[in-house]
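If your schedule permits, I should be very grateful for your opinion on a structural question. I would ask you to consider whether the tokens describe a fold that such a sequence might reasonably adopt. Thank you for your consideration; the sequence and its tokens are set out here.
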Amino acid sequence: MKIGILTQSIAGNYGGILQNYALQQVLKSLGHEPVTIDHYKSYSRIRWIMGRINAFLHRRSVNVPFPWYGRVGEKSILDFSFNNIDRTKSIKVILPEIIDKYGFEVLIVGSDQVWRKKYNKNIETNFLSFAENKKVKRIAYAASFGIDEWDYPEDLTGRCQELIAKFDAVSVREKSDVVLCRENLNVAPTHVLDPTLLLNANHYKKFFKTNMLPVDDYLFAYILDVDDRKRNFVNSMANAMKLKPIIMSAENNAKNDDSIEKWLTMIANASFVITDSYHGTLFSLIFNKEFITINNSNRGQSRFKSVFEMLKIKERLLLDFKSINIPSPLDWSLVNSILDFKKQESIAFLSSALNK
């Protein structure tokens, strides 16, 4: 079947692009023809200026492109998505006509906080409002709110209740999302894995760039929101482990070589990983790397809690990082067995939903 995928707009986001890629790969393995609806966000000049001011006040890099001149994100990152993700023509507004134009028989919305109001200006679109009067199968795969509190106003809640009632199958990514859907949208969704976890480590190895690796053993830190406290913690942990610290940040990915390929390679070959990123955490799990995650509540704490509770490794989520403690090695046989079981469940949900 021809499937249209609706997720966050393609931009300079490692995890967002890779979860999109992974879902396409799984759908292709099931014999379908997935295409991502390539919609992009546009920002006003005022919003861009305010973003630069905010970045400066937080001592962040302001070396970012003007959004109205093109996509947000560096060319090396965007090239990965353009080379590896099948997509529609780039559009700003999704209209019903896209279903007929591409012959979509199924629409899948997910994953990556697609139902978080803060990140989606027109949230109804992510509940497939544009397909309301179209004869097409509707599926939510690993849709995520990112937070564990309901923040939709009453009128929006009612509208989303109407839209989600038309779905043929609904699954969510976090355990807390199951509760939010039951209590606010009158549906009982299935809990599934993020798409990136549906592919094994060997699948991602084809993207490795080993020529980018440092000579010394290293601690790799992928930090979305860099500050002096996190930087000092990374350096102290590296010193305690006698490893070279290498910090890669979403804030300084203006470097031409900070590609998705490099990011994957650096995680997979690190002696230890520290991250405050959800997908930084997931790829540490995929590559069986010893790691700790610094809690990042601003970007959605419930995402981290759900994974760590499922895998019984809550001690690897740091709510505070005042002291330097090197954790005992994880029981990877237990972690992998839980992931393998949940992976089978997740793919079974997807296959069943498509074949109803």
About this structure: The longest strand covers residues 137-143.
